[in-house]
Structures are given as C-alpha cells and as structure tokens.
Amino acid sequence: MIELTVNGIKRQVDVVPEMPLLWVLRDELGITSAKYGCGIAQCGACTVQIDGMAVRSCQARIGDIASKSVVTLEGLEKKDQHPVLQAWIEHQVPQCGYCQTGQIMQAISLLELIPQPTDEQINEVMSGNLCRCGTYPRIRAAIHAAAGKMAEK
Amino acid sequence: MGEMQRLSRRAFVIGSAAFAGGIAFGSYSDAKEAAASAGANPLSAGLGPNSASFNPWVEISPDKITLIAQHADIGQGVGSVQPILIAEEMDLDPGQFEVRFAGPSPAYFNTGFADEFAPFLAADQSPAAEAARAAVLENLRKSGLQMTGGSSTIPDTYEKLRVAGAVARETLKAAAAKRSGVAVAELRTKSGHVILPDGSKIAYVALAADAAKIAPVLDVKPRDPSTWRMIGKPMTRLDIRPKVMGELKFGIDMKMDGMLYASVKLNPGKGQPLKSYDARKAQSMPGVKKVLEIKNGVAVVATNSWYAMQAVAAVECEWAPSAYPAEQADHWKVLEASFKPEFLGKEWRKIGDVETGLKSGTLVEAEYRAPYLAHAPLEPLNGIGIVTDAGMEIWVGHQSPQFVQSTAAAAIGLKPEQVTFHNQWTGGSFGHRLEYENVRVLAEIANQMRGTPIKLVFSREEDFIQDIPRQISVARHRGSVDKGKIVAADLQLASTAPLKGLLERSGIPSKDPDAQLASGLWNVYYDIPNFRATTYEAQGLSPCTTWRSVGASTAGFFTESFIDELLHAAGVDPMKGRIEMCAVPTYRKLLETLAEMSDWKGPLGNGKGRGVAFVEAFGTPTAEVVEVTATDRGIRIDKVWVAVDVGKVVDPVNFENQVQGGVIWGLGHAINCEITYAKGGAQQTNYNHHEAMRIYQCPVIEVRGLENDPKVRGVGEPPVPPAAPALANAIFAATGKRIREMPFNKFIDFV
C-alpha cells in the first residue's frame, strides 16, 4: 500500500511504485480532471500540483510522491471564486476542453510565480501545454484577466 | 459532384434496409410533413409516464426538459448551440433544460450535406443548382444518414431546430389552453412557463402529461429574428463552465462497476493481420488479467489502463507487411506516377481553351506537395463496451452513430440493431472520430470478455500509429500571364482519396471520383478565361480519411499559392489582383473587407511580408492575410486577419474561437507536421514528432464574420485552408523564397 494525500484527503493505493500519479488519480481514485494526452510530458494535460508546484502527473512515479500533497483542479481552494477559473469562464476559453484543466493548473502556477506576466512570460511558461483546438489567444487573454483580478484582491 | 447523388442513393439502400421510417421535418420542407411520420420519433419509445415528445429533439417529463443534440460535440460547440436554437423558440433559459446526445435514428438525417453533395459551385444559386440540392436532400432524407462533419451542423439545424422549438412551444400552449380554458391567442410563454392573461404561470414540466395527450401543433412559424434573445448575440456556451470546473466527463473519464481496462497493439501496417506473438513477458506483469488475440493485433485486459498499456507494449508481435509501400519515398513516387489517364479521378471544370491559353504570354509551372498528417486530438481513442447474449452496449464519442452500430456488429457477428450506442463528449476529433479503429477492437475485446464492461484506451503512440491520416497529394499546376492578367490556369493534382476511403470503411463503398479532391481546386471564383481542374487518384497508398477541411486543406494550399505565383509573374498586387478577378459579388466584398481590416497597402519592406489567400470550403468563403517578419532566428508570424462569410453568425463568441482555432490548426500543421512511413508504420508517434502550433508561435488573430451570403454556412473547417497558402505567400513577400511543400520547416526556420 502506498499512501498519499490528494486534495487534503489521505488515500491508500495498492499499485506498483512505478505507476504514474496520473493513472493513480484517474483509474484508482476516480479523479479525472487530470487528463491523459501524451504520457511523455509533451502536452501538459495531466498537470497537477505537488507540494504547490505544477508538475506533469504522467511523469511523477507514485512511489516517489508518497507522503507529498497532491492538489488537482477538483481540490483548488474556493474553486467557485477562483480568479483563474473565473477568467477562463468569462473569456470562454475552452473548445473541446480536454487540455483546459491542465492549462488552468499551469496558469495558476505561472501567476503565483509572476503575478503580472507579459505575453513573453506567458509564452515561456505555457508553451508546454498543447491545445489542439487552438484556444491560445483566449488562454493569453484569460491569464491577463486573471492577473488583473488577483491584483485587485 | 453528380456522383455524390448516386452515393446518396447507395446510402439510401443501406439506410432503408437498416432503419424503417423517415424524418419529422427538414429545413426544405414544411413542418406539416411531421404528421406523415409521427411514428418515426425515436424518443417515443423511451418516454416515461406522463411525458411528452413533440419531435426528435424535445422531451418533457414532469421533472425535466431534455433537448437532444443530434450532432456530436467534438469541441466545436454544437453541444451548446443545438439546444440553444431550440431554447430560443421555446422561451427556455440556459439551466432550465438538460442536453442529451441523440441515439442512432434516421430521424436525425443530416440535411446539411445537401449543398456539399450537389454538383454545383457553392456560389451558384441558379434554379438548376437549387433543384439538384433539393434532389440530394431527398436522397439524404431517404438514407437517414446521421453524421457530424463537413461543417454542416449549423446549415443542418439552423431552421430545423427552431421549428422543433416552435412546435414544442405551441403544443405546450395548446395544452395550457385546454387546461385553463383560455384561448391560445391569449397565452404567451416566458422562461419555461406558459403565462396566462391574469399573469399566472404554468411550468412546462407541469404540462407534460397533458401535452402527451394531444397531437403536436405543427402549423407553426419560427419567430422573427428581431425577437431573438440569444441567437446572434454573445452568449456563454453551455459546456464552458463544466469544462473549466473539470466536471464535464469525457468518454475517457467514464467508469462502470466491475469494469476492466484494455489497451491494444495493432499492426502498424494499417489493417494487415498479426502473424504471431509472444505474450510470455506480458502475462506476468502487474495487474494483467488476460492477453487476447484480436483481428489484427493483441489486447491486454488489466486492472487499470496503465497496467494494460505497459503490458501490451511488452507483447512481441510479428506482423504481416503493409499493403502500401513500406517506405515514404515510394509513396511520393506513386503519386508522381499518377498523373496518367488510367488514374483520372475527374476533370471537374473546364472553361475556355486551356492549351491555347497556356501558349500565350508567360508560362508559369510549379509543383506542390502536401504530406500525410495525423488528427491526434488530445483525448486518445477510447470507449467502453459490454457484450452479453442480448447484444452490445457501447459508450464512445463518435460522429456517425449508425456506423458505430454496423461496425461493432460486423466485428462480432451481431445485427446493427443489437448494438446500443451512447455518444460521449469528446476531447477533439478533427476527423479522427469518423473512423472506427477503436470501435472494432472494443467490440472484439468485449466479446471475448462477455459480461464484463471493458474500457479501452489507446496509448498516444497507438493512436498515432493507427490514425488513418490526411490525404497525401502532389499538384502540377501550369498557367500563363499576359499584359497584367492571368490568361490560363491548368490545375492538376494526384492524391489519395479521403472521402472514398471513409465511405468504404463505413460500409457504403463508392466507385465515383472523390469529390473532396476537387475542393479548393475546382471552386475557384476568379475570372480566368481558360481554366481547368483535374484530379488523379493514386492507388495502393496508405488509407486516408477526412482531416479538418479535407480536400481543401491540400488543394487550397496548391491553388492559392499558384494564383499568387501567377499574380507575381503578372506584376499585380496579390490582394488587388484577387479582388479584381473575383467574379462573385459577395466574395469580392469579403476580400475588400479583408483588405480594409488589414489596411493592405502593398509591400511592407524591412524584412516584413504579407500574404493573402482566399478559399471557399463547404460553401463558406474565407480569406486571410498573414503578416510575418524574417528575423535572424527565422520566420515569426506577427498577425493574422480573417474574414469569413457565413450568412449568419449564430454564436459570435464561439464563432471567433472556432475561426482562430482553424487558423492555428492550418498554420501549425503547415509549419512542422507530417506523417511519414518506414517499414510500413508511421514514424511519428507522439506530439514531439508532430507538434503543430504551441502558444509561443501563436499570432494575434483578428476575426470578422460577414453575413452577406444568401445561405447560413458552417465555420468549423473553412478557416483552415487559406492559412497555409497565406503564410507561404507572406514568406515569399518577406524573403523572396517560394515554399511549395508542407511542412514549411523543411525549407525555412521558424522562431
């Protein structure tokens, strides 16, 4: 049994230590906001936070993160009022929406590091998150809007 | 494209054999037709007590209102706009109804294919053209073909769903009149209620039982557009919030009690059999329940998806060789050798005397190439299936419900009607979910695991390897210019046939030339006195299928690059030249709008360049200007302007998102993507090999929707084709370098 904390709740899973966190979340714990897109850290759809840092959960071996705290989009604090999620809704970013939970988790991490990012800084941090539908103009706009909302608070 | 009518008749045979019945009403007909086929409402059978359904799109029970989305949502927003069209007429507000995807039924035949399948140019509104479209529509009605694709959702549903909503509203009013004794004319509706003259209200759901007892009121007219609350105005797509909140369940997120997980390894030489395999290593890997042999590969069933993927990767397989050339170079050779009479698809259009025209003035000749491409939506192929003695139940996101039934049934010896299909929200498609690789193998696996629900997930690598790619194509164009004008254009291409392949795999093969290869080739609206458009169909290459914008994704690049070359040779500004040559007034207005939006004033200098391209695809004319800068590190795309004429912009925010996404799709794949074959298999197996556009390369994209076209058009695909030629033309303007082959990064660097 491997123990980990997901969204503030202690969970136990009976899997091999090599198993990626992504698949533990999805198939063992039924937490599906982290998506499988590529499995090799090329798309960012599986992005979650581990101890506050945005990571690709397809690359995090469960054996290495036992005892660490995992937060997925489901577990964000005050999710309904979260400025990044609000901006994402206001700008109607998603098309198919499959990459967007990963985009949002990456954007939250970006704004924690750089509260008022420039377009260049957005490009640098967000380029690991692929969107096949092409919502990039809206992602950019939503990040700026979220930065504005967070500055007001 | 007259052969498409024959295709429709062929589809009709399939359709009528499999499904009896017709359609309630379509956009060319009057709602009264519904009376003739009232028994054909597929919702009737599943209605609970005291529930009413007035047509195949509206269901009201004492608890809730459910609106049916017949077109599959593949990210393009139709899971929202379809119910909104109904809700507009029913006076429902978002939040007052649930949305459910339609099951398979001929009642949901797609009227939106009528224009594309009729053998006339989109801009041709002559009585002959309209009569041909009406004939195709009648064949579509008889066929009952329910399919999402061809940018047809809005053309199909724009009238039909508003009529469906109006029928529901008027029937509810009739029920309220009967109950209250107030004349219908005295009643109005608002926000899910019938309002009586005294101001009292009856909720629609409270009228369900009464409404079920009366015949639907079919003598209705949709409302005047001036009264619309939602259509044409900025609105929030219904799926935005659940997607942002991570609450929307895609097909891959579904779970069932007692479910096991499967993954597959299939012959990379698409469609060919497995010769032998060694599963000894896989058998003993963690979580493995079973290793199964299936038609052209192996499957592992395990206790989670990751265990299944790991184990199936460890199965050693020996494959029969591919039926197409093993090496990519030979694919190109086949194409090059296909410009011969025996491979003729069709001479689609001939104006004037091309050979004589080519002899006058300056001759321009050019060869262009476009590679195979993968669809690679971010959600890989998946599905859940359970097979019992009664049949199969399948949960999968797909664009062709009836063909899911027939494909799954054929794979395991069932009748199509024994397969129950539940459509799912999907993480993109771009044409991928019109094919059947996941459906067929899921049926086989579930059949070998009878009684156990099986969730199949393709690994990303397997998704790439088994993708039926975009067509590969070579064009050989010739033209001449004289005294500042284009005198002749002889456009020829050789290509694999995407639509023909799809139809064959769908069980309705066609021997007719593939009309999609003419898209972007024959529908050229410039006044060129000597013009010819001819397609050749290469044989024996990789199977191919429809990829966002299909034929126009390659032919549009060839044609609009070549027009640019001709205008350059003629010494004419590429924007002014196109505007002056444009023979269709509304299309000319589109180009003039684009010139105004981009403030086009000719060459920019200082390493900057602009290119323009104009393509009509699926009836929607789209023109784009791309601006680039040639920097020390390569080409940087600075800005794109797009003008699209769809007749009516139904959902303006989503419209802009779709258009921007289409441009990004077109640009990204043109810059850096191709699928090549080695040893019979695709060499690109993940996004690091087939990247397309990431945010750092994404320009500002300014969009304008025009409403001059006499018909309401779709927008999912049409913004794709002009992007690549506009970019190539911009690179030429900035650098003097003419790129005639995709992907462009083989010839020039990009920032």
Q: How is this fold's topology laid out?
A:
The complex is a heterodimer of chains A (153) and B (751).
Chain A lengths: L1 E5 L2 E5 L7 H8 L18 E4 L2 E4 L5 H4 L3 E3 L11 H8 L9 H14 L5 H8 L9 H17 L1
Parallel strand pairs in A: 1-5
Antiparallel strand pairs in A: 1-2, 3-4, 3-5
Chain B lengths: L2 H16 L14 H4 L15 E4 L2 E3 L4 E5 L8 H13 L7 E4 L12 H4 L9 H17 L9 H28 L7 E3 L2 E3 L5 E3 L4 H5 L27 H5 L15 E7 L7 E5 L1 H4 L4 E7 L2 E6 L2 H9 L2 E4 L8 H9 L7 E8 L2 H6 L2 E9 L11 E7 L2 E5 L5 H12 L6 E4 L14 H12 L5 E4 L2 H7 L6 E10 L2 E11 L2 H8 L24 E8 L13 H19 L4 H8 L3 H13 L10 E10 L2 E12 L2 E12 L6 H21 L4 E2 L2 E2 L17 E7 L16 H13 L16
Parallel strand pairs in B: 3-4, 8-18, 16-17, 20-21, 24-27
Antiparallel strand pairs in B: 1-2, 2-3, 5-6, 6-7, 8-11, 9-12, 10-11, 13-21, 14-19, 15-16, 15-18, 19-20, 22-23, 23-24, 25-26
Helix pairs in contact in B: 1-5, 3-6, 13-14, 17-21, 18-19
Strand percentage of chain A lies at 5-15%
What's the arrangement of strands in the largest beta sheet of chain B? 10-11-8-18-15-16-17
Largest sheet of chain B: 7 strands, mixed
Q: Number of helix segments of chain A?
A: 6
Q: Taking Cα atoms only, what radius of gyration of chain B do you get, to the nearest Å?
A: 27 Å
The unreliable regions of chain A are none
Average pLDDT of chain A works out at 97
Strand content of chain B: 15-25%
* Count of spatially separate domains of chain A: 2
